[in-house]
Amino acid sequence: MKSKIFTRIIILTILSNFSSFAQDNQIPYGNNPESGHYVNVNGIKMYYEIYGKGQALLLIHGNGGSIKSSSSQIPFFSKHYKVIVVDSRGQGKTNDNSDSLTYSLMTEDFNALLNYLKIDSALVFGQSDGAIIGLMLAARHPEKVKMLAAMSPNIRSDDSVFYTNAAALNHKFFETLQKKYIAGEPGAEREFKLQRLMAYHPHISADELKNIKSPVLLISADRDLIRLSHIIEIFEAIPNSNLCVLPGSTHFAIRQNHVVFNETLYRFFTEPFIMPTSIEYLEKIFDRYK
Known about the structure:
This protein is of the alpha/beta class and 290 residues long. Helix content is 44%, strand content 19%.
């Protein structure tokens, strides 16, 4: 009898979780009139959506992405936080009227948005371009960033940053979109500006990284586009930082390996931030033999 009751509980739990997952999937993230808003910041009309309540958690997508890019994170984190998801300048529903895109300009967009929302300090996660913006936001507006998780950022744009195949593909994209832009093809200007952004930016110095005061989790994947050596360079330049390399994952782990990723991120945000050293542990062991 107990076995049947237990089995029924398991089945009901699975069905409940499936129903919740299906309901989450029905939410049109990035095009949700119930949660979507526009705000005028820095000369653009910025689109954002808010889900959940509590401590503010700002999610910043990568190049060419949108709010939809966080579809695997919003259902999980909105149960714990007030999740703010945004279409960055020139992407999704947010327009762009600048001659060219820079990460500095986009960083100020997000700072202005947080000011508008009257958010003094937020948890921040950014992926790829979003991680670059997160680093710059933490360095230039430290009061705005309580904790930062940055997945696969780069601080310069030379070929040493990217694995060889990724660098070659970036060059091909740039040349293809440049030709389309020069030919005046519809939509080519927007795409070319985004590709040009990656080709010539960012320019973040080690000194700027040292100015970051908030705890930072640097995340990479063992099959990433960004060289692990570059991520370690960033990790070592930030005073209060931890490093995570996701196994069996790519640059797009937030979707492809989202269960492990979300749990890792949640643990970082909720547990006390520590930077233990192996030497300290070894010294304690040696003390036993004195």
